[in-house]
Amino acid sequence: MKYAKQQLAKFQQSPLVIDEKLDLQYLIDERFSDLIIKAPFVQVKGTIKTLANEDIVLSASVHADLILPSSRSLAPVDWSTAVDIHETYVVDEERLQRFDEDEAVFVLEESSLDLDSVILDNLVAVLPSQILTTEEAAGADLPTGQDWQVISEEDFAKQEQEKKEEATDEKQALDPRLSKLDDFFKK
Fold first, then answer.
1. DSSP conformation letters of 80-103
2. Which of 12, 56, 94, 186 is least surrounded, with the fewest CB atoms within 10 Å of its CB?
3. What is the Cα 57 distance to its own chain's centre?
4. Quick one: what percent of the chain has pLDDT higher than 90?
5. Pairwise CA distance, residues 123 & 112, whole Å
6. Is 120 in contact with 111 (CB distance < 8 Å)?
7. Exposure pattern of 71-89 as b/e (b: 16+ CB <10 Å)?
8. d(CA 170, CA 159)
9. Concatenated DSSP letters for 136-155?
């Protein structure tokens, strides 16, 4: 859904009410196909209002059911989220200076508000960095291959500790005849 600035100018007295089910698949395939496999359900409810100074304020709640690739095996994983969006759009960059740095304020591009892109960008911002299938989360074997394997953080920490202990043991087992050489490298 794309709204032209002139179209939104009509909604100064009362806001434009949005209650739509969006199809974002075309945009996902174009921009974020590596992060989202499919978006079977994206519901947006909210308002868009134009202020007297031509700023456009978007307030919306988004509920989305997405299918994401597992971060371990790339197998499809169902994931749901709810996101609240409160953003302001200004006509030119000079107006950005009126707002605090922590406020979500953007310059309106091409004199239109592309709601599909705004919704998708906010959904991508809340995607988890790690998502696992139920089997992977339950502790199923980690992937392995020829000359490689995935290990857990705990196993990695154990291996590092063992390496440190072995290095200490090797230092203590230094041949006394070579102890002078050890002192040579310390200088």
1. EEEEEEEEEEESSGGGGGGS-TTS
2. 186
3. 24
4. 29
5. 20
6. no
7. ebbeeebeeeeeeebebbb
8. 16
9. HHTTPPPPEETTEE---HHH
Tokens of 176: 């006394």
pLDDT, tens only, 144-175 = 788 887 777 888 899 888 888 877 766 666 66
Residue-by-residue DSSP string for 26-71: HHHHHH-TTT-SEEEEEEEEEEEEE-TTS-EEEEEEEEEEEEEE-T
For the record, the structure tokens of 26 come out as: 């075309």
Q: What percent of the residues of the chain are helix, what percent strand, and what percent coil, each to the nearest 5? A: 35, 35, 30
* Three-state secondary-structure class, residue 171: helix
